[in-house]
Amino acid sequence: MKPVPVRRKKNRDDALYSKPEPDAFEAVMRVRQALGANLYMLEDTSADAEIYKLPKALRHVLLIRPGSYVIAGGYDSPKSKVKGEISHVLVKQQIDHLVESGKWPDSFAFVEDGSTTKGTSQLAEDEEQKTTSVEGESSDDLPKNTNRRHWEVCESSSEDESNES
Fold first, then answer.
1. Residue 31 lies in a domain
2. Dist CA 71 CA 53 (whole Å)
3. What CATH number should be reported for the domain holding residue 90?
4. Does the residue 69 lie in any domain?
5. What distance in Å separates the CA atoms of residue 12 and residue 132, rounded to the nearest whole number?
6. Which spans in 18-119 are helix H?
């Protein structure tokens, strides 16, 4: 019988429920691209992209997608293409904690749904456009669903005939 992997459960709980903060040698970065073999192209606040690796303890624990945020630290070796290692993959609650503590970079604007924005004034304009477009739409403006058979409904004359007799 195979023992239960306690270490993976501990790593998952640490990754999801801890409140990590970057230290002097680490920075908050955005994932630009997954390169494979646990290597990721990360961009920092100045939009410079470099390759970082995911440590063995975090593999198969969390899914890292392009646009996700991580805390990564650098190596001192200038010979390697890999510039550092990812120490934490940030989820929404951890990002909120960093924003509240003032350690979130200003160049990464963050909204409650997890996406980046261009500014608060643009957010207000987008909300106004959404509400006006929803109010002006009706079901007649929607295209017909081609996946369903459309039956033409005709007023049946059989009902009229049965009522007459």
1. yes
2. 12
3. 2.40.50.140
4. yes
5. 43
6. 92-101
128 found inside a domain: no
Closest CA to 119 of 131, 108, 103: 108
Whether residue 146 lies inside any domain: the answer is: no
Residue 61 belongs to what domain range? 12-106
Please give the angle made by the CA atoms of 115, 17 and 6, to the nearest 5 degrees. Answer: 125
Structure tokens at 34: 């997954």
Q: 92-117: per-residue pLDDT in tens?
A: 999 999 999 999 998 887 654 444 44
The identity of residue 41, as a single letter, is M
What average pLDDT score do residues 69-91 get?
91
C-alpha–C-alpha distance, residues 51 and 123, integer Å: 32
Region class of 114: left (phi > 0), else alpha (psi between -120 and 50), else beta: left
User: How many residues does the structure list for the chain?
Assistant: 165
Cβ pair 60, 8 in contact under 8 A:
yes
DSSP conformational letter for 141: G
The two three-digit tokens of residue 144, written as one number: 């017909």
